[in-house]
Every structure is written in structure tokens, then in C-alpha cells.
């Protein structure tokens, strides 16, 4: 009521009082309330309830009169009595003795508190943005921070209080969230994402935008602890996503000739970020890799027996995979980390050179081996959901089942380019044109499927999220 009356008085507008204004309220200056919180924090007993109040009460009409006086307005003409609201409490009274026993007392007099409040509003007239809907006699809007609700001013015509022409034009206004005041608008989620310039990091930002989740990209390099701390202090995230890592250009063979650089980011950097997050009680969603396994006698190709989360990595053929397996092992000791084993990621953007489909459709020759893969369009939103559910530990982050290179290229031919042709070669022939061996495997996605029963098998996901949408685009 006090902010509303001050804002109206500043504009010289009438102060509407519901009913006759005889109902009483007790008022405390905000700094005294803040001090009460502090006293309770330090001296209060856990599990106890404390009333924060004052025994001094004032009638609503008297408050309105005093505000008029502060603005040199005539209360007799300025105050308008409007229809009372259906449930307008006559009085609330809190006994604050228990709080006083802790040593707290009210320090600001009513007069001083009111004057300071008025001074603040006079100095910060634009602080709340456009709240004209809230200043109407009977506002109907919901003031939910961060959520826009339309104001429906239909009852204003029936009110005894007449609106100016400019007011009536605002009968469908939107209340903006408070400006520059994070303490009054604490969002329930705020993501800090590493990997702004990367493929997965870039897609994560788009998902956050689509879902309306506040996020910021980390500026720090992963291996620089002080930079990560600065990011956390400035962003104040609820969750951290690590989509940063050295993946090698043009491919992972780069890591064979850049081992210290690979270690710096993928090992030192990833562990540093996990450690900093742990210090700050933050969950870190870590996009790791499933390229740390290869088919073996217990998990033969096309057997349907996939590697499980608890299986020990058996593929160290490339330096990239070797370091990723080492980090995965160490991250198991961090209970604030959710490690997602991504494999051969695919997205609906077929122009992206990082996309597995784009890669194999451009190669001169391709091997034909079934593999588990990750359809990013389906799975990245699931990783956001995993953050919301605060899931931790190791997860095979692939669609269930396997798909081979040839099966994908058949789909490519069917949906994208009927004239497409390709040539296969063997693993031995492939070995001659790459530096480090590549991992081929099936991952067991049953843990993920149990948590997200809607998760599609790889071939269905490919058609739904990649080929069907692109087919429309190509034929259109
Ligand atoms: N794409 C795949 O085939 C695949 C498969 C399985 C798993 N993964 C894993 O998923 C993660 C993301 O992959 P991606 O394909 O999105 O990678 P990407 O496109 O190569 O992007 C890597 C990102 O990491 C950042 N980065 C590299 N070193 C950094 C450091 N020291 N500090 C901070 N940022 C650093 C890069 O930023 P700058 O440009 O500023 O260096 C870039 O934004 C990686 O860990 C990767 O190993 C990828």
C-alpha cells in the first residue's frame, strides 16, 4: 500500500482506499526487518518460528493522510474511498516478544521510515518500470517475478474511482520484471555453460532460449581456476554445463600430436571445473564420450550386448580416448558430477561438418560398422532435464540400439539425395588413412531409457529428428 500511494502521490493522482480505511496494519521499516533476519540467523533456534512485527498500528486512512502531507497534497480531495474488496482484513497483529528476547528491537520510527521510503521512491521513479496496472484501485494482475501476466482492467468501469484517458488505454498492459534487482527476482534456474563456440555448447544455449531458462556462457578457460571462480561469482548459476573440450581439428588425430594441449583442457581443465563446482555445491553436467569402449568377446558386434555404465573402458587406441577414460575414472569421485557418455553425435543440421552424417556423406570411402550414437536434437533437451532432476553419476548418453554407416547412408539416399552413392572400405584400409584407431561399440542405454521412457531407439530417432525434418526442407 505504501509504495502504491507514494507512486500515485508523486503523480498527483488520487489515493484509492478500499472501504472506509478504518482497518489497521502495523508497519516496519525494511532495514529493521533485515536486521531481524540477521538476529534470527545468528541467535535463533533451529525449528523455531519468530514473528517479525511491531506493536504500533496505524489506520489505512491515516497512512494515506500522512503521505498526502509529505507531498503537500490536500487529503480531503486526494483520498478517494472506493468499494471495499471482498476479504479485507480489519487487523493483523503479531506478538514480536520472542524476537525481542533475542535482542532485536525496532530502530526506525514510523515517521523516519516513511520519509526514507518516500525519498527512495522520489529518487528512483523508474525502478519498477511500468506498474501503472498495479496502481489502479482494484488491480487484478499477478505480480510473479519474471513471469508476465496481462492485466485485465474490466472492473474499473464499475468502480467509484474514475480513470484518466491514459489509464484506460492501459487496460492490457504487461508488468515487466523488476529491473537491476536480482534479489527480488531470483530465478529458480540459471545455467552456466562452457563451450560457447563449440557445437554442443552452441546448441545448449539455443535450448535454454527456447525453454526460457536464464543462462550465460563461461568466459574462463577450464584450466584456470581463478577464471572459473570469477564466472561462478558473477553468474551465480544453479547448474554448470561443461561442453568445452579439445576435440581436435580437423579430427581427433590432432590430439596425437598435441598431447600437452589435450591434457590441459580435457584432463586438468575438466577436473578443475568439477572441483570448483564441488566447492560451490554445484552440479556439473559433463559432456564426455562413449568412445572409450570397443567391441570385445563379451560385447560382440550386433549381439545386442552393450557396455554398461559400470564397465571399465577398454579402448585406449587414441590419445583423445585415453585421456577421456582417465578423467571419467577420476570424476567418479566427484558426487556433484553427472557424466554423459556422448557417441558419434548427430543433429538435424546436415550442413554442420561436425555432424556424423555430414562427415560420412563427404568421405571418399566409409567403413560399415554398427555403433551407438547420440541424436542431439532428442538428447540435449534430456540433459537439461537431467540437470533439473539433479541427476548425478555416469550415464550412457546414446539412443538405444545401434545403426551402421551403411544404414545411415541408405536413409540419406532415401530422404535427402536419391542420387547419392558411396564406397565402403575395410577397417584395415581405413587404418591406412587415419593416425589413431577409432572406437566402435554398442552402449547399453537402458539406464537412460528407464529414467526417460520416451527415449527413441536410434533408427526411429534418426528418422524423427533428422531425416523427416530435412526431407521437408529439401522437397519444399
Ligand atoms: N563432437 C563429437 O564427436 C563428440 C563426441 C563425443 C563427445 N564429445 C565431447 O563433447 C564435448 C563438446 O564437444 P563439441 O563437439 O561441442 O566440441 P567443439 O565443437 O570442438 O567445441 C569445443 C568447445 O570447447 C571450448 N574449449 C576448448 N578448450 C577449452 C578450454 N581450455 N577452456 C574453455 N573452453 C575450451 C572451445 O572454445 P574455444 O574455441 O574458445 O577454444 C569450444 O567452445 C567435448 O568434451 C567432446 O569431447 C564430442
Automatic annotation (TrEMBL):
GO terms for biological process: UDP-rhamnose biosynthetic process. Keywords: Isomerase, Oxidoreductase. Residues 2-117 form the NAD(P)-binding domain. InterPro entries: NAD(P)-bd_dom (IPR016040), NAD(P)-bd_dom_sf (IPR036291), RmlD-like-bd (IPR029903). Residues 190-358 form the RmlD-like substrate binding domain. Pathway: Carbohydrate biosynthesis. Residues 164-187 are annotated as: Disordered. The keyword Phosphoprotein does not apply. Pfam families: GDP_Man_Dehyd, RmlD_sub_bind. SUPFAM superfamilies: NAD(P)-binding Rossmann-fold domains. One of its GO terms (molecular function) is oxidoreductase activity. This is Trifunctional UDP-glucose 4,6-dehydratase/UDP-4-keto-6-deoxy-D-glucose 3,5-epimerase/UDP-4-keto-L-rhamnose-reductase RHM1-like. The gene is LOC110744489.
Amino acid at each position: 500500500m505504501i509504495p502504491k500511494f507514494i507512486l500515485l502521490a508523486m503523480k498527483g493522482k488520487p489515493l484509492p482506499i478500499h472501504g472506509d480505511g478504518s482497518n489497521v496494519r502495523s508497519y516496519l521499516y525494511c532495514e529493521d526487518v533485515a536486521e531481524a533476519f540477521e538476529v534470527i540467523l545468528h541467535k535463533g533456534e533451529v525449528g523455531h518460528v519468530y514473528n517479525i512485527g511491531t506493536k504500533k498500528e496505524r489506520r489505512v486512512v491515516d497512512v494515506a493522510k500522512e503521505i498526502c502531507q509529505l507531498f503537500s497534497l490536500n487529503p480531503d480531495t486526494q483520498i478517494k474511498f472506493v468499494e471495499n474488496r471482498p476479504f479485507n482484513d480489519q487487523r493483523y497483529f503479531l506478538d514480536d516478544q520472542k524476537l525481542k528476547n533475542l535482542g532485536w528491537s525496532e530502530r526506525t520510527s514510523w515517521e523516519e521510515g516513511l520519509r526514507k521510503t518516500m525519498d527512495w521512491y522520489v529518487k528512483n521513479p523508474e525502478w519498477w518500470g511500468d506498474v501503472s496496472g498495479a496502481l489502479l484501485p482494484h488491480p487484478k494482475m499477478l505480480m510473479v517475478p519474471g513471469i508476465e501476466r496481462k492485466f485485465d482492467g474490466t472492473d474499473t468501469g464499475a468502480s467509484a474511482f474514475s480513470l484518466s484517458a491514459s489509464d484506460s488505454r492501459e487496460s492490457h498492459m504487461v508488468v515487466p520484471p523488476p529491473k537491476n534487482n536480482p534479489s527480488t527476482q531470483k530465478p529458480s534456474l540459471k545455467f552456466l555453460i562452457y563451450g560457447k563456440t563449440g557445437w554442443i555448447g552452441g546448441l545448449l544455449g539455443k535450448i535454454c532460449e527456447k525453454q526460457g531458462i536464464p543462462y550465460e556462457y563461461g568466459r574462463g578457460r577450464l584450466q584456470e581456476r581463478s577464471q572459473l571462480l570469477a564466472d561462478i561469482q558473477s553468474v551465480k548459476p544453479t547448474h554448470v554445463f561443461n561442453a568445452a573440450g579439445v576435440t581436435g581439428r580437423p579430427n581427433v588425430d590432432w590430439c596425437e600430436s598435441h598431447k600437452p594441449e589435450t591434457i590441459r583442457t580435457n584432463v586438468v581443465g575438466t577436473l578443475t571445473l568439477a572441483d570448483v563446482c564441488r566447492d560451490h555445491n554445484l552440479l556439473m553436467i559433463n559432456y564426455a564420450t562413449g568412445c572409450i569402449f570397443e567391441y570385445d568377446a563379451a560385447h560382440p558386434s550386433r549381439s545386442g550386448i552393450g557396455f554398461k555404465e559400470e564397465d571399465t573402458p577398454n579402448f585406449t587406441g587414441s590419445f583423445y580416448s585415453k585421456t577421456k577414460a582417465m578423467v571419467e575414472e577420476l570424476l567418479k569421485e566427484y558426487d556433484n558430477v553427472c557424466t554423459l557418455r556422448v557417441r558419434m553425435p548427430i543433429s538435424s543440421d546436415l550442413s554442420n561438418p561436425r555432424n556424423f552424417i555430414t562427415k560420412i556423406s563427404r568421405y571418399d570411402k566409409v567403413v560399415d560398422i554398427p555403433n551407438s550414437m547420440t541424436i542431439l536434437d532428442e538428447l540435449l533437451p534430456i540433459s537439461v532435464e537431467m540437470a533439473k532432476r539433479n541427476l548425478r553419476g555416469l550415464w550412457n548418453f546414446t539412443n538405444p540400439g545401434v545403426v551402421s554407416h551403411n544404414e545411415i547412408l541408405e536413409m540419406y539416399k532415401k530422404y535427402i539425395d536419391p542420387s547419392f552413392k558411396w564406397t565402403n572400405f575395410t577397417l584395415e584400409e581405413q587404418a591406412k588413412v587415419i593416425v589413431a584407431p577409432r572406437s566402435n561399440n554398442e552402449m547399453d542405454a537402458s539406464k537412460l531409457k528407464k529414467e526417460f521412457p520416451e527415449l527413441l531407439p536410434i533408427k526411429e530417432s534418426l528418422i524423427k529428428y533428422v531425416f523427416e525434418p530435412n526431407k521437408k526442407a529439401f522437397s519444399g
